[in-house]
Amino acid sequence: MMARVKPNALPWLGVSLLVFVLDQWSKAWVLSSLPEYTAVPVIDGFWNWYRTYNTGAAFSFLADAGGWQKYFFMVLAFAISGLMAWMLARTPRRDWRQALPLALVIGGAIGNVVDRLVHGHVVDFIQWYVKDHYWPAFNIADAAVVGGAIGIGLFGLFSGKPRPAAG
């Protein structure tokens, strides 16, 4: 007798694919349309398009490390994506609170890996600021990774086991 297979969350990889496609499309637009290192206002006082490059990780961490970091971040992104895909395979399909954040991180991580493979760096272009305070430029892949990581943390924190009913 065969055990019934429970539907897993691997179809959520479609969200990963959507993030990846939007990220790569937006970066192709940036590379063909925006000048380098020149602010193009979207909302004055808050948001610019600003084409720049990141050879490091978040906030340019290890950007000046001499080149080895490119391969380190690529291996790390593939390892994390593989782990998260394995987690999706073990997640019930209906559990969007776990599946969606994992899918977002996978799509964003792979989007930035492709940049490192193709360009040797990540293309960033979204710049938020208030007065003279600028948030480091980022891209759609970065937003997906951060959003997914926040989701993993928040849903993990607030999804404790239900308490047994009193009485």
Question: Keyphrases for this structure?
Answer:
167 residues; alpha+beta; four-stranded antiparallel sheet
N- and C-termini, Cα separation: 40 Å
Low-confidence regions: none
For the biggest sheet, the summary is: 4 strands, antiparallel
How much strand content do the residues show? 5-15%
Structural class: alpha+beta
What gyration radius follows from the Cα positions, in whole Å? 19 Å
How many β-strand runs?
A: 4
Mean pLDDT: 87
Describe the strand arrangement of the main beta sheet, using strand numbers: 1-2-3-4
Helix content: 40-55%
Shape: elongated
Count of alpha/pi helices: 4
Describe the structure in your own words.
This protein is α+β, with helices and mostly antiparallel strands and 167 residues long. 51% of the residues lie in helices and 14% in strands. A four-stranded antiparallel β-sheet has the order 1-2-3-4. α1 packs parallel to α3 (96-119).
How does the SSE layout of this entry go?
Blueprint: H1 13-33, E1 40-43, E2 47-54, H2 68-89, H3 96-119, E3 122-130, E4 133-134, H4 140-158
Antiparallel strand pairs: 1-2, 2-3, 3-4
Helix pairs in contact: 1-3, 2-3, 3-4
Task: Offer a quick outline of the entry.
By secondary structure, this protein is of the alpha+beta class.
